[in-house]
Specification:
heterodimer; A: OB fold (Dihydrolipoamide Acetyltransferase, E2P); six-stranded mixed β-sheet; five-stranded mixed beta barrel; B: mainly alpha; MetI-like fold; two-stranded antiparallel ribbon; 19 helices; 1% strand; cell membrane (chain A); ABC_transporter-like_ATP-bd (chain A)
Chain lengths: 369, 414
């Protein structure tokens, strides 16, 4: 974090020791420090109640931090009302004004800024072109589909060229296919227009698809903020490992720590070597994290190399089209997932005894769950 | 083709039969209410509308006279035949004791007619000999020499008349049958209608001004507190109208709570006149009608997501702009419904103005009540009611058109 501050491009948004409580008893956001650089797409990811939406609302100006200061372009904005922050926002249910037409909705931020009429017209039609909805300009929001409303909300938040755009789970109400399409469209808009976007979601795949950086929230604390691939490959704790992507957990106790690696005795029997990411030392209990696609199944009796070899029993196999999953019972974990090539699941019989192997670097020893 | 038509017919019939059971069931469910409304609402209203134009009293009492006048052009005095018919009718009516019925009706049209008719009946000892009827009658009462006396009888001949409706609008027919303004001493109803509309409009405006913030508070407060506030709003509904009105009398009378407090505080030196005038009427009516404004406003405001105001703010609209351009237009259906409701209810108000108003604050319903209960002038009462009903219907139609024209638009153009 400290190194980041030194080398970072100028931060557009800076949260400095932000705390927020609603009831004066427990903190929804606990001591948040977060920098968002200009042109960045940052996602605040976390389960509901983790403080991500509160953080976004404080940035938008709808909630006031209990402690700390928020800077936008180096200007403290804690006491700036929302309408003077110059931040565009896309809401969860779009919040398109039902009594205005699409064109009037998009023109709204311009007309409240007393932009001259010709200019408004020009920019509104440009925005309508951008979302490919020129022909629907005179419809009302109620006459549009969810995806179309979403586009209008996007155009409305962008039309006045705000220095920052906030999105609060904007795709939550759309079906899966449309959601994936809109993810790509938003990402493309971000790249072509060079805008700074702060995006809130609880959907980790959405976050992975779109973001430059993801801040993983839990319990009012940013657990980790990093690039999507780094979060997946190098989670700093069990929460992040579990929240981002599929993850198998094996409980155990650290026997020895040797530089980056440690030997862990599993609670369900067996010993493996794992990367020591978040363990205090020998004797500490730990949770091992292994991704399903980093595990190989070897038939019983085969001899294989490597320190990590555990007996397993096939519980079930699931066919998923582009891949298949084997559900195994490994060292007391009855839902240990292993990703297979499609078709490979035919060779695994229910109840069959097999062995699994994985490399020490693919097995992370993290804090106990 | 044949196969299709073979199956089609029974299918259609089956469908109809299935639908019919459903329709009968639905009808059976609403039937009790329908019958009730028919007898207590539709029937009386139809009766009232009919009474506004019904005019058969004179025709019943003086049938021969009406028949004799049927072909009279009204330019000169009628001929001897008409006088003879009248004399005959009066004799018959006196024997039957129905003279007063016709006298009452004719007196509405021409002040003093009652005297003319009763004196004639009293002094007409016997049916005059043929050819002397005119002479005899004029001798008894010189009014029979006046053309207007006869036109009045002809006009009141019915069976249908516009007399009451015209009277309700301060109009009358002159001796030549033309519609002219009623004489000033009878022309009071336009003023009363204007007063009724003015008071109703004022009460509606007061209700809107007072109710809007309350409804907003109700719609935005957290549920617990908004429920409590809602109970306060609904409290008047659980109290008798009479009690509430009397409470205002206690509060506003010259030795009432308000005046005493103001005197004690030294703000005024002598009691203000707060009741038995327009002020008292408006205060009491606003209080009684306020819930009818608050509830539709509340329901329209409850439907407005707080996200709209947030969206407006995030798009750069200061609070007032956001309110005027985003919030207010969305409450217009509620404002319209509440205003219409309060206005129409206020138009028909009777008890409150009667108790806390002065003579100059009585609304049209007071006069309708007066004519039905005191003077038994059912025709005029019905005509006033019909005019009020028509005006109300017109307003409702205009409101409907306005709402239909622009669904929820506040007419705010960018």
């Amino acid at each position: 974090m400290e190194a980041g501050m030194v080398t970072a491009a100028p931060a557009l948004v800076r949260f400095s020791s932000i705390q927020k409580t609603y009831d004066g008893e427990h903190l929804v956001v606990k001591n948040l420090d977060l920098d968002i650089r200009k042109g960045e797409f940052v996602t605040l990811l976390g389960p509901s109640g983790s403080g991500k939406t509160t953080t976004l609302m404080m940035l938008a100006g709808f909630e006031v931090p209990t402690h700390g200061e928020i800077y936008l372009a180096d200007r403290p904005i804690k006491n700036v009302p929302p309408h003077r922050r110059d931040i565009g926002m896309v809401f969860q249910n779009y919040a398109l004004f039902p009594h205005l037409t699409i064109a009037e909705n998009i023109a709204f931020p311009l007309s409240v800024r007393k932009t001259n009429k010709a200019d408004v017209q020009e920019r509104v039609s440009a925005a309508l072109r951008m979302i490919k909805m020129e022909t629907l300009a005179h419809r009302r929001p109620g006459q549009l589909s969810g995806g179309q409303q979403q586009r209008v909300a996007l155009a409305r938040a962008l039309v006045f060229n705000p220095q920052l755009v906030l999105m609060d789970e904007p795709l939550g109400a759309l079906d899966k296919r449309l959601r994936e399409q809109m993810q790509l469209e938003i990402k493309q808009l971000h790249q072509t227009m060079g805008i700074t976007i702060v995006y809130v979601t609880h959907d980790q795949s959405e976050a992975l698809t779109m973001s430059d950086r993801i801040a993983v929230f839990n319990d009012g604390i940013v657990q980790q903020i990093d690039r999507p691939d780094a979060l997946y490959e190098h989670p700093v704790n069990s929460f992040v490992a579990h929240f981002i992507g599929e993850n198998n957990v094996l409980a155990g106790t650290v026997e020895t720590v040797e530089r980056e690696y440690c030997r862990v005795a599993l609670a369900g029997g067996g010993t493996v070597t794992a990367r020591a990411v978040n363990v205090s030392g020998a004797g500490a209990s730990t949770s091992l994290s292994v991704r399903p696609e980093r595990v190989a199944i070897v038939p019983d009796g085969t001899v294989s190399e490597g320190p990590n070899r555990l007996p397993a029993r096939v519980q079930n196999t699931i066919y998923l089209g582009d891949h298949a999953l084997a559900v195994l019972d490994v060292a007391g974990n009855g839902e240990f997932m292993v990703k297979l090539q499609p078709g490979a699941h035919h060779s695994l019989g229910h109840g069959e005894s097999v062995h699994i192997t994985f490399r020490p670097e693919d097995c992370l020893a993290l804090d106990p769950v | 083709m044949t196969a299709a038509s073979l199956t089609e017919v029974p299918l259609k019939r089956r469908l109809r039969r299935a639908e019919r059971t459903r329709q009968v069931k639905a009808l059976a469910l609403v039937l009790p209410l329908l019958v009730f409304l028919l007898f207590t609402f539709a029937g009386p209203i139809a009766g009232m509308l009919w009474r506004a134009v019904d005019d058969r009293e004179v025709r019943q009492v003086l049938p021969q006279t009406i028949a004799a006048l049927a072909n009279w052009d009204g330019k000169d005095l009628p001929d001897e035949k008409a006088y003879a018919a009248l004399a005959g009718d009066i004799q018959a009516a006196r024997a039957a004791g129905t003279i007063a019925l016709a006298a009452k009706r004719l007196n509405y049209a021409l002040n003093g007619f009652r005297t003319i008719l009763t004196s004639t009946a009293r002094n007409l000892k016997a049916v005059p000999e043929a050819g002397t009827a005119k002479e005899t009658l004029i001798k008894i009462n010189s009014a029979w020499r006046e053309r207007t006396t006869w036109t009045t009888i002809k006009d009141a001949g019915g069976p249908i008349t516009g007399f009451y409706l015209l009277a309700a609008l301060d109009l009358t027919r002159n001796a030549d049958g033309a519609i002219v303004a009623a004489p000033p001493d009878q022309a009071i109803y336009r003023d009363i209608f204007a007063r009724t509309f003015l008071i109703s409009l004022g009460v509606t405006a007061l209700c809107l001004i007072l109710g809007f913030p309350v409804a907003y508070l109700l719609a935005t407060l957290p549920p617990g507190r908004s429920n409590l506030l809602m109970i306060f709003v609904l409290l008047p509904f659980w109290t008798s109208l009479l009690v509430r009105t009397c409470a205002w009398i206690v509060l506003l009378q010259s030795k009432g709570v308000v005046n005493d407090s103001l005197l004690w505080l030294g703000i005024i030196d002598e009691p203000l006149r707060l009741i038995y005038n327009r002020f008292g009427v408006c205060v009491a009516m606003t209080h009684v009608l306020l819930p009818f404004m608050i509830l539709p406003l509340y329901s329209s405001m409850k439907a407005i997501s707080p996200a709209y105001m947030r969206a407006a703010a995030s798009l750069g609209a200061p609070p007032l702009t956001a309110f005027l351009r985003i919030y207010l237009p969305q409450t217009l259906p509620g404002i319209g419904a509440g205003s219409l409701l309060v206005f129409i209810l206020a138009l028909g108000y009777y008890i409150t103005p009667a108790l806390v108003g002065g003579a100059a604050d009585q609304m049209i319903s007071y006069f309708i009540a007066l004519y039905t209960t005191e003077t038994a002038n059912w025709g005029l009462a019905s005509a006033l009611g019909a005019v009020l009903l028509l005006a109300t219907l017109l307003l409702a139609i205009v409101y409907g058109k306005l709402v239909q024209g622009q669904p929820v638009t506040g007419g705010m153009k960018n």
